[in-house]
Structure formats: structure tokens, C-alpha cells
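pls ignore typos typing on phone
S-adenosylmethionine + seq
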Amino acid sequence: METSNINRLLKMDDASFERLSKYVTTEYGIKLPDVKKSMLESRLNKKVKSLSMNSYSQFLDHIFSEQGRQGDLFDVIDLITTNKTDFFREAAHFQFLTSTFLPSYSNQNLKIWSAGCSTGEEPYTLIMALEEYRKRNATLSYSLLASDISMRVIQSAYNGIYTMDKLTTIPLEMKKTYFLRSKVNPDITRIKPQYRNKINFKRINLMDNSFGISKVDLDIIFCRNVIIYFDKPTQEKVIRKFCTYLKPGGLLFLGHSESIMGMNLPLKQLQPTTYQLQ
Ligand SMILES: C[S@@+](CC[C@H](N)C(=O)[O-])C[C@H]1O[C@@H](n2cnc3c(N)ncnc32)[C@H](O)[C@@H]1O
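k done
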């Protein structure tokens, strides 16, 4: 039987793959070795077909054109990035923050950045952890910036709407405190607006020279499971930039498979993947 044109996988020629992977690595830091070619083909197929294009060279000419850069290029970034995340992912970080770090940290007016926040589970977990801490330590206040390169995930994080199965890692009492269940569809839940409004959502590319935020101003940066997609020199460059945004004594949290081993940085490891600026 003939497969319909829309479903047939369009093959990417080597020159187009090289052009796209070079662009993505230079602009966003994300490595795209040859083995990622079939992943790219399957993620981009629908987008290419929706533009009625039948070759990748034509598609790339379009997305890199003036017009493409205003719109379709953003969709390509959305499709290329890997956005897997969970509430209370790597829960030891939140435990360390509220049980060990905050009780002995002198500043009670925190500035926190979730860099590479994906669909919002990480910044909302921070909200829950900090609000629970504030029940016992009312003097603490905080502001929270959450950013990503993908507009799609930032919009989704801002909406704060999740299916119930996404909430399985959240203790029941917290679900009741921080989320509102839809009356129309009981499988849908939404973060309460007063908590969503505590977060400033922004598009920030970690490859940019400046992040548009003040230097030596942040107490805590979460950048977990983001730089794993970058090569080692790029990872080091990004972490070095983070160091210029943190206050001395401030913390950097990385993902479980990321580390600063072999890098010459002014950071001291406090526990696995948790670093303090010296
Ligand atoms: C796997 S998610 C991690 C989400 C969350 N931090 C966590 O640990 O669960 C990685 C996120 O990093 C973002 N990302 C990748 N490259 C980036 C860049 N150059 N600048 C900013 N964000 C980037 C992706 O869009 C994606 O949403």
C-alpha cells in the first residue's frame, strides 16, 4: 500500500545535516553528532511537510532566511531540544537547600534562577520547597527567574497546566496546597495563580554573552540536565559565566550526570552536583 506523503520520512542529506548541526552547536551549544541524524529526521518531518517542502536544503534555506528567523526557526528549536523533566527530580537538591543550606545562609532575601526550566516542573518544585520552608521561617523571601531557549516550553511552564500523572512525585498535602484540579476534566490540574505569579519567565540562551540579568546578584542557580547536551569546553564556558552572576557563597546545582571535574573554576563541591562560589 502507498504510504501517504505526509507520513513518509523525508531523508536529510549529509550537507544539510552538517549545516543544521553546525548552526545548532554554535548558536545553542547543543551537540548533534552523526548518530542524531535519524532523531532529527523524525522530529522535523512533520514541520518540513507542513511547509510543503520536499528537501532539507530548501527547508534550511527557509528557516535561516529573514522570514524564517521570525517564526519557523523557533519551531525548529522547540523540536530539537530535549525537555524531559519532573517535579522533585533529583529530590536531594531540594532537601539540601531547605534543610542544610538555608538555615545557615545569612541572606533571607533570595534571588534564584532556574536556567533551562523546561515545562516548569523545576521552578514549581522550588516554589513548593521554599513555601514549605517559609511556614517555619517567615522572614525568608525570594524571587525566582525561570528561563529556557524553547518558547514552547516557556509558554507551557507559564500556563502551569499538567495531567494528574505528572504529579505522582508530589506529596498529597502539597498537591492540595499548590494545585487546583479542573472541574471539567479531573485529569487536569493547574498550579495556583498566586504561586505561578511568583516566577518571572524569560527566554534566555545560555550561549549568549550576557544573560540580561545583573552580575553578582544571584544566591542560587539551578541548571540541571541542560549542559549535558553541550561539549566539555562549552560546559566550562557556561559555568564560568554562571560564576559571575552568583554572589560569593551562592550555590550552583547541576544535574546528576553533570560535573565540573577537570575544570578550573572558583567553585567548591558541597555534595554531589552541588557547588558553592568561593
Ligand atoms: C532536559 S531539560 C531539563 C529541565 C530541568 N532543568 C530538569 O532538570 O528537569 C533541558 C532544557 O534545557 C534547555 N536548553 C538547551 N539548550 C539551551 C540553551 N542553549 N539555553 C537555554 N536553555 C537550553 C532545553 O530547551 C530544555 O528545556
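The first strand starts at residue 109 and ends at 115. Residues 28-30, 81-85, 89, 116, 118, 122, 148-150, 153, 204-207, 224-226, 229, 255 surround S-adenosylmethionine (CB under 6 Å). more later
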